[in-house]
Design goal:
The protein has 3 helices and 7 strands; from the N terminus they run E-H-H-E-E-E-E-H-E-E. With 158 residues, it is α/β, with parallel strands linked by helices.
């Protein structure tokens, strides 16, 4: 498996999730299974089957997070000096030239992406269009609603 780029914040979030899964969620579901077993006949015990299914989800997520962390290439954005160019982890302020609005995005790994929080995956069309550009450059992004043109107002590494 190839390296998975993550920001330091994204890696910390995955580590916190893994800790919670192992120390809180896993013991809870084990107790739920034990309690459901105590009720008797397992064939017709919906609580038991639901708890076993939940256990499967938790164990699968633990394996997934451990795999991502083991293949992570953690990039500390604050230590990046890209000379003003847009790179993985940078935060970019953009001016939408079509409607005059300003928007800010941080380019992050796939697991960290959240459009509501202004974080876009480095594999997204907008991130691919921005990477390698610098302040003052114009970029055109092929969006589902048609091409959008942006001007890069500022590039930060925070």
């Amino acid at each position: 498996m190839s390296k998975v780029p993550l920001t330091a914040r994204g890696a910390a979030r995955l580590q916190e999730e893994l800790k919670r899964l192992k120390s809180v969620d896993r013991p809870q579901v084990i107790r739920a299974i034990a309690e459901a077993r105590a009720h008797g006949d397992l064939k017709e015990n919906a609580e038991y089957h639901a708890a076993k299914e939940q256990q499967g989800f938790i164990e699968g997520r633990i394996r997934e997070v451990e795999g991502k962390l083991s293949h992570a290439q953690v990039i500390d954005v604050s230590k990046v000096d890209a000379g003003g160019r847009v790179v993985f982890g940078s935060t970019v302020n953009l001016l939408d030239e079509d409607d005059g609005s300003e928007i800010s995005y941080q380019i992050v790994g796939e697991d960290e992406a959240s459009i509501r929080e202004g974080r876009v995956s480095f594999t997204s069309p907008i991130a691919r269009a921005l990477i390698g550009k610098e302040e003052g450059d114009q970029v055109t992004v092929a969006a589902p609603g048609g091409a959008r043109t942006y001007e890069i107002l500022e590039v930060r590494y925070e």
